[in-house]
Amino acid sequence: MRVVVVEDEALTRRAIALALRQEGFSVSEAADAVGCRAVLSQVRADVIILDLGLPGMDGLSLARELRAAGDAGLIVATREASHEARIQALDTGADDYLVKPIHYGELAARIRSVMRRRGLLQDGRKRLAGWVVDLKARTVTAGDTDAGLTRGEFDVLARLIEAEGKIVGRELLVQGVSRRPEDADLRSVDVLVSRLRRKLGVAGEETLIATAPGFGYRLTRPAESL
Ligand code: CA
């Protein structure tokens, strides 16, 4: 999984690259549009993280060029938080949009999400407490039994599995419930988690999903790859 980080501020770029390497990604760095083209002539990128405020070239033009040139996923990172800027970037072809300062854990999760949507993550099936979770087919089964999860319930479970037992904030989980931040209702996450606990719960065993009070949720054990 190769990520290219295009960012002119050296400290920021190195910090992002270091954090992503720790998450298991191969990372190439570029300081501007020229450097980005040079890197892409050498390596194939799965996802490109693009700072919109680059010297010498309007970031959106570069986004357009990258979109036209290849099929790498594109995540735009910028200080500009307005809805207009967000819409413009997404309309240009960005798969996702992050406002600086960037939370590295969130960036890694968004990269995996973009890769999954583009069919680049092949980590398909996981075992979780007697259940088989198929992240591509979006099913949760145990033998002939289907857990019958709704779309929202599955999205929450997938994010928790992605975090491998680390705590996931409710703000991050709610994005699986609603694509539009203004519709986000944190309590809806609590409802989905309680339904998940009921549907996946195994009698006599500890809960699968633990509460981190006032913050979010985590799996009490990571899912194993099959
Ligand atoms: Ca910049």
Describe this structure in words.
The chain has 226 residues and is an alpha/beta fold. It has two domains: 2-117, Response regulator (Rossmann fold), CATH 3.40.50; 125-225, Winged helix-like DNA-binding domain superfamily/Winged helix DNA-binding domain (Arc Repressor Mutant, subunit A). The protein contains eight helices and 13 strands. The strands form three sheets. The chain has a five-stranded parallel beta sheet, with helices on both faces. A hairpin with a 2-residue loop joins strand 8 and strand 9. The mean pLDDT is 87. Calcium ion is lined by residues 8-9, 51, 53-54.
CATH topology of the largest domain: Rossmann fold
Tell me the strand percentage band.
15-25%
Number of helices: 8
What is the highest CATH level, the class of the largest domain? Alpha Beta
Low-confidence stretches: none
Tally of discrete structural domains: 2
* H/E element order: EHEHEHEHEHEEEEHEHHEEE
Give the N-terminus to C-terminus distance in angstroms: 19 Å
CATH architectural label of the largest domain:
3-Layer(aba) Sandwich
For this structure, what is the CATH homologous superfamily of the largest domain? Answer: Response regulator
Radius of gyration: 19 Å
What small ligands are held by the chains?
A: calcium ion
Mean pLDDT score, rounded?
87
What is the SS-derived class? Answer: alpha/beta
Strand line-up of the largest beta sheet:
2-1-3-4-5
In summary, what is this structure?
The chain has 226 residues and is of the alpha/beta class. It is built from 8 helices and 13 strands. The strands form 3 sheets. A 5-stranded parallel sheet has the order 2-1-3-4-5, sandwiched between helices.
